[in-house]
């Protein structure tokens, strides 16, 4: 049982409302996304009409309280949406997820005025939002942020360069991290960071070039350049010099979403491989009749369902604010993303030569799966976090792991 203390800690509750919601999202994905997958891959852009359909359905506001213009719903509902959308188009899910990387910290750490001003238009799908933290020299190492913010009267002046910022090319609002004071010591590098809410049309905010990454065609990241951007005092998010807490709290919740994304990718790859094994003939027999193929499919399903259960469990603990929810999120993210990579690779092998042909659309699952093992904290970072949490739970002390 260690580090858990009660068998009820492993309980997963899924209601009829969750299942009805899943069917609704799947219908949207099948009807609106699936016919456009090849177009999205080819043009590296998601058609505006798909976003409009999503707005009409309220998909932009899932998980956001109704008081702020959202559709409401718990962590499980958001997880299900991420999975079902990613089964067809991970890129579309990532665009919606970028909104949540903005709304989550604002809902948790923002003032009431900030919530009322910035959350409703995002929840209603009127505007997009993004989260600008990663830099060329700072990804998993949040404390390595070099962007600066200096105080001048009742405003802050931001300067720096953000990198790999998903959705920034469409975003009207961004949450941006910056160093507002130097760290007191090497052991306390995480101190002195602050988050700000920045509006895209403010002077000095520039969206740089698109970064042509191998996967997620249709929603690829951009640079964000901050050149003497003036941010009013009322747009400080949370407490000055305590932005590290804003970052890690956001990512602790975001990791469950990435795990769900990976489950969706694995589900899509498995379905393609299974259907192909039934239809494709070799030596006058369907592929699935060969032991080598049958074993691969069985392993794929076993790993897929294990990852799904782990992800749903992490979502349940996150909803409960369980004291080991962060550990569960790290485990789910670590396992589910590696399962997605493995299942996608096996799907390609089952398809043989057709698996590496771009036109068949099988190889894209592996391209899309690769990034999930890296963003929201690379998987080796998750392993370090789990080990650290175990030591804290057993011994009651924090240790430095590297």
Q: Could you give me the name of the CATH homologous superfamily of the largest domain?
A: Butyryl-CoA Dehydrogenase, subunit A, domain 3
**Arithmetic mean of pLDDT:** 95
Q: Based on Cα principal axes, name the global outline.
A: globular
Written as H for each helix and E for each strand, in order along the chain, the element string is HHHHHHEEEEEEEEHEEHHHH
- By DSSP, the count of extended strands is 10
Name the beta content range.
5-15%
- Our count of domains comes out at 3
CATH architecture grouping of the largest domain: Up-down Bundle
CATH topology of the largest domain: Butyryl-CoA Dehydrogenase, subunit A, domain 3
The chain-level structural class is alpha+beta
The order of strands across the largest sheet is 1-4-5-8
- Residue runs with pLDDT of under 50 for 5 or more positions: none
In DSSP terms (H or I, runs of 4 or more residues), the helix count works out at 11
Main beta-sheet strand count, sense and barrel state: 4 strands, mixed
C-alpha-based Rg, rounded: 21 Å
Protein name: Acyl-CoA dehydrogenase
Keywords: FAD, Flavoprotein, Oxidoreductase
Family: Belongs to the acyl-CoA dehydrogenase family.
Cofactor: FAD
């Amino acid at each position: 049982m260690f580090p858990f203390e009660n068998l009820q800690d492993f309980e997963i509750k899924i209601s009829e409302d969750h299942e009805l919601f899943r069917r609704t999202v799947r219908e949207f994905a099948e009807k609106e996304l699936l016919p456009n997958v090849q177009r999205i891959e080819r043009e590296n852009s998601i058609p505006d009409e798909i976003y409009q359909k999503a707005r009409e359905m309220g998909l932009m506001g899932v998980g956001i309280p109704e008081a702020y213009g959202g559709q409401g719903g718990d962590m499980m509902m958001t997880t299900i949406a991420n999975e079902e959308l990613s089964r067809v188009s991970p890129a579309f899910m990532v665009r919606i997820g970028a909104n949540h990387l903005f709304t989550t910290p604002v809902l948790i750490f923002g003032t009431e005025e900030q919530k009322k001003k910035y959350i409703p238009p995002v929840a209603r799908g009127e505007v997009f939002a993004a989260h600008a933290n990663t830099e060329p020299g700072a990804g998993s190492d949040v404390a390595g942020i070099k962007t600066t913010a200096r105080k001048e009267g009742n405003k802050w002046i931001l300067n720096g360069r953000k990198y790999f910022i998903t959705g920034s090319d469409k975003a009207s609002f961004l949450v941006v991290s910056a160093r507002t004071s130097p760290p007191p010591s090497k052991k306390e590098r995480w101190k002195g960071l602050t988050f700000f809410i920045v509006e895209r049309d403010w002077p000095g905010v520039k969206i740089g070039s698109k970064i042509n990454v191998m996967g997620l065609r249709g929603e690829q990241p951009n640079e964000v350049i901050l050149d003497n951007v003036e941010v009013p005092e009322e747009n400080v998010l949370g407490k000055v010099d305590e932005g590290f807490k804003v970052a890690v709290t956001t990512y602790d919740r975001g990791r469950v979403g990435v795990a769900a994304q990976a489950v969706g990718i694995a589900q899509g790859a498995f379905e393609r491989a299974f259907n192909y094994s039934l239809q494709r003939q070799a030596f006058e027999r369907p592929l699935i009749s060969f032991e080598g193929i049958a074993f691969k499919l069985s392993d794929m399903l076993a790993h897929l369902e294990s990852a799904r259960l782990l992800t749903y469990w992490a979502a349940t603990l996150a909803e409960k604010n369980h004291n080991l929810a962060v550990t569960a999120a790290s485990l789910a993210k670590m396992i589910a993303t590696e399962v997605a990579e493995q299942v996608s690779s096996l799907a390609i092998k089952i398809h043989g030569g057709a698996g590496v042909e771009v036109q068949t659309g099988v190889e894209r699952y592996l391209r899309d799966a690769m990034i999930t093992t890296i963003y929201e904290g690379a998987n080796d970072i998750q392993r370090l976090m789990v080990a650290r949490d175990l030591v804290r739970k057993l011994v009651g002390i924090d240790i430095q792991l590297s």
